[in-house]
Amino acid sequence: MSQTNIQESKLKVLLNQLGHYFAGLNYSYGLRVAVGVGIAWFIAFRLQTDKPYWSIMTVIIVSLPMQSMLVEKFLARLIGTLVGAFVVTLLATVALDDQWLFTIYMAFWLSICAYLASIKSSMVTYCFALCGYTSAILGFALSISPSSYMVFQITQARILEILIGLVTAFFVSMLWPSHLERIIVKQKLRLQRSNVKRLYQSLLTADFDPLKFNKVYEKTLLGLMDFRDLIYQEFLSVSTEREDNQMIYHYTYRLMRAMSGVLVLQSIKQDLLKSDQLAVTEYLNQLNQWFATAGITEEKLKRKPKAPDALLKTAKGAEFVTKLDEKFTEFYQTRLDQPIDEDLYMPDRNIHYSDRKEALINSGRTFISILFGMFFWMETQWDMGYILLILIGIICTLGATYPMITKLLTITFALTLLLTIPISFMLKFGLLIQATSIVPAMMIILPLYFIASLIRASSMLGFLIGYGFLLASSFLIGFSNPMSFDINAFLNQTFALLVALGIILLIFNIIRPTSNERKMVRFQQDIMQQFSQLANHVSLQAIKNYEALLTSAVQQAKVIPDIQEKSRFLAHCFLTVVILKEQLKLQNAGIEWIIPDNLIIAIKEERIDEALLIVNKLEEKAPQEEQLTYWILRCALTSFNQFLEGMD
């Protein structure tokens, strides 16, 4: 191939990649942000508010790529704004004459906000994060003007500016339906079913690597959880029909039910392959070929290959075939138009796993950071010191809701220093200073904010670049009314932003967030403690609540990278559910099966070899009706042990 052809080929590849990149951008979101910022800016100017940039920042914070997410955030922010304003007014009437006392009260209140933002469900989390955000904006601005008149003036001005941004973002998104959302939902719906189908195909492959199977299962489960949350938020979107969402939501849980016992089947398969490899392998190969064919549900289930007699003549083989048949029926009967199944279990969303230790760390860090910022302000007698406290309060309370916050802050600091500050300076003193009215100023700013919004919605790095630029530039440019072009004020705001980020980074490196490894160990210990309390006291509702707790814990673990401790935690979740469900199964059959304390302790302490010995001894002495239960437990423990050994 000639050099010219090689270059043309590379150019085509590059153009294709660029085409895919630009085709995947969320232009609807970019336009919503740009239009929302423009309208909020215009209304704030017309109403003569002195700091319209709070309206602009509110639009940026509340506007989200998915329209459905906006309604939840809007309600949380509205409640957070009103509660924050009420508490700050209350604190101001008590202690505004004493700056240090007022700051201590504010630090304590923001610490409570940070704690609750770290420990509650997503809606409540965002509500308290934004409550702290509003409190910081109002409270520390009041501290420089300690009078009852200024309390009223500043409070009503800031609330008005925030409400302008809230209402604007809400109505722009509601009146501008995001049809891209429905396309994304349909694409992800097909992807989820394909992923579950691939999991089944892996199960039906005799020599499929068990460790790889665990990873496929984990990825499929987390993907379904993400999709479930997306559909849950879609109930709040005007771009979708509620009835359609209801069907997809139930369909997602049916898919989760279809894969719920697959790990147990994998462990049983591994055990049967040791005792009757030929019959099991032959049957799995026939099933795999049948599973790959197309067909209508009823017709396809009728022509499912029959299990060989060699497999059915043993109780263990028959149990394996029965469980496989149940899974196939569940999978093929999972349809969008399927009537609501009363037996379909959906975890209670009011049951949440709370990492209280991490919440206390966030709370203490917030308190110390604010006092440190106050000390810096008082010692330097800096005129703009109150802005420093506002920024610290905002970063601490909002930061409590983000994973890997130290890394995010470090990247944000670097991007602010190298990108946002220079661009904001050029925009303000190079272009905006020449604008004679708000219209030409908008023509300069809004296209840039449109581009930044596209970048924000493109990837994780894009989120840091785009979101950081949108927020920091609106603060640094300072869309005041009228616009001010004081270089000293710009330098003061720049210094306040950098010092605030620097102080937070310093405190975050002194009072560090728990490492991902230790956090997952803590998750595992908490879950095993719950399992210990529930074992031998099972009921259908208790297991449902336990699964809801596991679902919440797994949901929180999603943001943690793939590390050994995370996989270990997920393996413990699987093992405990298997044990509890087998105990409930026997209980429903009228058989009382008591799990020995030494077995529970051995599992908690990961002494699996010892746990296997205990199970083997119990299996030898167990009556006939309990034999299969011990065998299933032994299979699960063996797979669990192989998994742990494979990680070492």
UniProtKB/TrEMBL annotation:
Protein name from the UniProt record: FUSC family protein
Membrane topology: Multi-pass membrane protein
Main localization of the protein described in the UniProt heading: membrane
Transmembrane annotation, as ranges: 21-47, 53-71, 78-96, 102-119, 126-145, 157-176, 359-378, 384-401, 408-425, 431-452, 459-478, 490-511
InterPro entries linked: PHBA_efflux_AaeB/fusaric-R
Entry keywords, A to Z: Cell membrane, Membrane, Transmembrane, Transmembrane helix, Transport
Molecular functions (GO terms): transmembrane transporter activity
Superkingdom, taxonomy of origin: Bacteria
Cellular-component GO terms for this entry: plasma membrane
Cell compartments where the protein resides: Cell membrane
